Amino acid sequence: MASAVDLLLSRLNENLEYSHKKGITDNFFSLGVSPFMAMLTDTAESDNGGAGFMTQVKTRGTVGPNPRFNLTGTGAPGRHQFLFQPVNLEWRATWTRDELLAAATRGAVNAFDLAKERIDQEMHFVRHTLEKHSGGRGWGALAGVNNISSLVITLTTVDGGASGTTTKELTNRFYVGQKLNAAATEGGASDDLRGASPGTIYTVTDKDRAAGTITLDVTTNLVDGDVLFEYGFRNFDAGDGRIMPVGLYGWCDPVAASNGENFGGKDRFDHAGLQPLRVALETEAPMTTVKEKLIRMDEIAFTEGLRGSDQDLCILVHPREFRQLTADVEQQAIVREKIERKNSKGESYTIGVPSYQLTGHKGIIPIIPDAFAVNPGHAFWGPFKSSGKDGMGFKLQYAGESLINMQKDRGSVIRLADNGVTDALDNTVDGYKASGYFRGNISCSHPGNYLVGTELTDTAV
User: Do both 117 and 197 map to the same domain?
Assistant: First the structure.
């Protein structure tokens, strides 16, 4: 005869599976999601039997009816195909038998709530991981090493190198106890991680937000100018491919493509239309304030013929520059920008984010801060809000039944360590586990319709 716990587990599995299917997208795109993530169109797509997601990229200019996928001549208008492997991010929620039984004494609903709360916490951690790397190039890079003094690391941007400027704001990507790797470059095919395989592991022991530094347990093999990665988020040999999402800086890189670059199986070097337009805003004299530079950025986008309406366009900046922008404008000019989405029932709802409404050449364009997708000093102009599968905005592709899936090979919830032995992975004696994964990537079919501005920092302060 089945025990009370077995019956409870059976009911949990049935109800959790139903709840997960109905609410996962709503829980993912909920209050607190970063602006760039909130504007992603989530779309279920085939990964071609494991070969990867195929993204058809349209260049700037008029694309003829002939569906060519091989461009001829620098900047020739047409279509190109990029292939990226899905990224796998796994989550695991656990709770003890005592916790489950204590909740069950107050009713089956409480037992369900216990399991759902733990699962939702882990799913939100997956979302936060995606947010933290949503602006990346797919290598899991967090920051650059500007300077090493004993065990203290002064942070700069990934592209900053040893001569970069200290970037205090990047301390938000680190926490005490975090495990890191390092390499000479972010994704250089010949640059293995520092140390012998699987790479030297560094542990964060302290951080100083005011100084823009982190403290490590060791600095073995680490040198000025290195790039820091989340442990396990980059292959030891970068040539083995990207294992994190190819985000904003992958598709719309402020750094021009190098000759022979492998991006989704293609070399973008000779095809300017497959890359964003770029402008160094500091050279656009005599402008000094963030507001003046953003106005000039919109003018450049207009004169270059970049497409988009005031319903689709926005400019993403880092909160540092947004804070400088608010010093240049009236406080009443800062309003809530509403990002429209649809829930699992097909009903429209909005996610509100702070913004400054800039009067641009194509109407009112919101300036929106994002702490993870954008690095300090940069700005991205483009049709981020152009949603839908055929829109010009960015997409969150996923392969699987849901955006974030639950493992159900033995039921949504399974019992752990019935023999009383601690499970090596879950560290829970006589407990329960629910696990799952995200399998997908980020794509953009119109990177040539975006403008990247560098040197945005207010030089008047």
Answer: no
Cis peptide before 286 (omega within 30 of 0): yes
- Residue found under tokens 């997908």: 440
Amino acid type, 144: G
The 10s digit of each residue's pLDDT in 78-91 is 677 888 888 888 88
Where would I find the beta strands (DSSP E) of 303-382?
A: 314-317, 334-342, 348-360, 363-369, 379-382
In this structure, the answer to whether residues 302 and 353 fall within a common structural domain is yes
- Tokens 């040197």 correspond to what residue? 455
Burial (CB count <10 Å: 0-12, 13-18, 19+), residue 293: buried
Last residue of a domain, one of 240, 269, 293: 240
pTM to 2 decimal places: 0.87
Secondary structure (3-state) at 280? strand
- CA dihedral 142→37→397→250, nearest 10 degrees, is -40
The CA-based dihedral angle spanning residues 142, 143, 145, 149, taken in that order and rounded to the nearest 10 degrees: -80
- Residue with token string 């300090």: 376
**What type of residue sits at position 377?**
G
3-class secondary structure, 281: helix
Tokens 């916790």 label which residue? 99
- For 351-405, how does the pLDDT look when each residue is reduced to its tens digit (9 = 90+)? 888 899 988 888 889 999 999 999 999 999 999 998 766 688 999 988 877 777 7
Q: What's the CA gap between 72 and 37, in Å, rounded?
A: 35
* Count of structural domains, the chain: 2
Per the CB < 8 A criterion, the answer to whether 148 and 226 are in contact is no
Amino acid at site 423 = D
List, in order, residues 6 or more apart from 347 with CB less than 8 Å away.
none
DSSP 186: S
In the structure encoding, which two tokens stand for residue 100, read together? 């489950």
Residue 129 shares a structural domain with residue 27: yes
**Roughly what angle, to the nearest 10 degrees, separates helices 319-326 and 290-303?**
110
Q: Are 254 and 295 within one domain?
A: yes
